[in-house]
Specification:
CATH topology of the largest domain: Rossmann fold
Bound molecules: adenosine-5'-diphosphate, magnesium ion
Strand content: 15-25%
CATH superfamily of the largest domain: P-loop containing nucleotide triphosphate hydrolases
CATH architecture of the largest domain: 3-Layer(aba) Sandwich
Length: 392
């Protein structure tokens, strides 16, 4: 069983890559499901067939599904939302603002991911390919269980047991709405749905994330940030896919400067995604729509490689506490066991690591940006860069 998450900024080619990956997997005989959790669904446009909220057959071995996240949210969160609306109403917050606060950003996608988990549990498919929402959204929701607990603790400060006891008392002395059994049931069901999603998606044997980008400055910057954060949260990024690369055959002088610009960006991508697999797709002469053209994309992207395999075994970055101090270490795997000639350079929010001819750049997570580097050492194939808070 494999799950492949395809993510990246809006418009970079996520849906095209998802659909192409899915067709290739199916052609190789894997029972495949491709589903989109991005509310801006376009799988249906990519395959050029109508699709809905239930899996629909596209080609042999391949089903596709566009999750209706609104409906999923309503099913699972309806009662809780009604209770929260009442509560906000009681506190004086009314109308649309109150309603907006009863659902937090990214929540609808959590329910979509619950569907991924259900499919995974059913064992019906060998591989599930997920066309995810744009980067920031996906990130937020991948780190969600913790955020969610915080939110729930604030929203439901009383446990079910306590509520049962205080409800009759409170209702006599105050009009504050106390959650009833149905709301607690809904909350429990919600936790139930969440349960296991993160485990499944951070199981590096099961799930790989693939980051799609274009050779453009802003797009690369965002993809690199996502790479850092996915790695830190324990998700394996097994490939960086650069889409819309100008092919060398394009020799019109109008594009000369573009060739130069892309060449520079491609070099930055190699350094920024060192340690994972980097592959390219050229800018085709037309939009790649329908199974036949998607097969052409897949061939360009994967060649003879089975796209359901792990494309690299990159170890994610980790942050560890240093013993008995407030220092933390950023742990990065490096392809050398013992070398002392490490050159570390920090520039803005980036860390450049050079060891001999090996050069890698890493976008630092926000938590490390306010710290200074105290030292670094290589041990057991890993580079440990120690960060300290000034004045501690
Ligand atoms: N390499 C490419 N060459 C030509 N057209 C492409 C290429 N990649 C994507 N497209 C086209 O660009 C449009 C946007 O791609 P899409 O996959 O929907 O992006 P996203 O899902 O990231 O928003 C689609 O019309 C698609 O056919
Ligand atoms: Mg899309």
């Amino acid at each position: 069983m494999r799950i492949i998450l395809i993510t990246g900024k809006g418009g970079v080619g996520k849906t095209t890559v998802s659909a192409a990956t899915a067709i290739k997997a199916a052609d190789l005989g894997h029972s495949t499901l491709v589903m989109s959790t991005d509310p801006a669904h376009s799988l249906s446009d990519a395959f050029d067939i109508p699709l809905g909220d239930t899996p629909t057959s596209v080609v042999p071995n391949l089903d596709a599904q566009q999750i209706d996240s609104r409906q999923r949210l309503e099913e699972s969160w309806g009662e809780v939302r009604d209770h929260l609306t009442e509560l906000f109403d009681w506190s004086g917050l009314k109308g649309i603002e109150a309603e907006e606060l009863t659902v937090f950003p990214g929540m609808d996608e959590v329910f979509s991911l619950a569907t991924v988990r259900e499919h995974a549990r059913s064992g019906e498919y060998d591989v599930i390919i997920v066309d995810c929402a744009p980067t920031a959204e996906t990130l937020r929701l991948l780190s969600l269980p913790e955020v969610m607990s915080w939110y729930m603790d604030k929203m439901f400060p009383l446990s079910r047991k306590v509520a049962k006891v205080v409800r009759p008392v409170i209702s006599k002395i105050s009009s504050i709405p106390v959650a009833n059994e149905a709301v607690f049931d809904a909350v429990a069901r919600f936790y139930d749905r969440l349960d296991g999603i993160r485990e499944l998606l951070s199981d590096t044997d099961v799930t790989s994330a693939r980051l799609v980008m274009n050779p453009e400055k802003m797009v690369i910057a965002e993809a690199r940030r996502t790479y850092t954060y996915l790695s830190l949260f324990g998700y394996a990024v097994d490939s960086a896919i650069v889409n819309r690369v100008l092919p060398p055959e394009v020799s019109d002088p109008y594009f000369d400067r573009w060739h130069e610009i892309q060449a520079k960006h491609l070099k930055d991508i190699d350094e920024g995604f060192r340690g994972t697999d980097v592959r390219r797709i050229r800018l085709f002469e037309e939009e790649m729509i329908g199974p036949e053209l998607l097969r052409v994309v897949a061939q360009e992207l994967y060649g003879d490689t089975d796209p359901t395999e792990k494309l690299s075994d990159a170890q994610p970055l980790r942050i560890e506490n240093e013993d008995e101090s407030k220092d933390v270490a950023l742990v990065i795997s490096v392809p050398f066991t013992e070398r002392s000639d490490i050159d570390l350079m920090r520039h803005g929010g980036e860390l450049f690591v050079t060891i001999g001819s090996y050069r890698r750049s890493i976008v630092l997570p926000d938590s490390l940006q306010r710290r200074t580097i105290r030292g670094a050492k290589i041990h057991g194939g890993e580079l440990r860069v120690v960060f300290t808070l000034d004045g501690s």
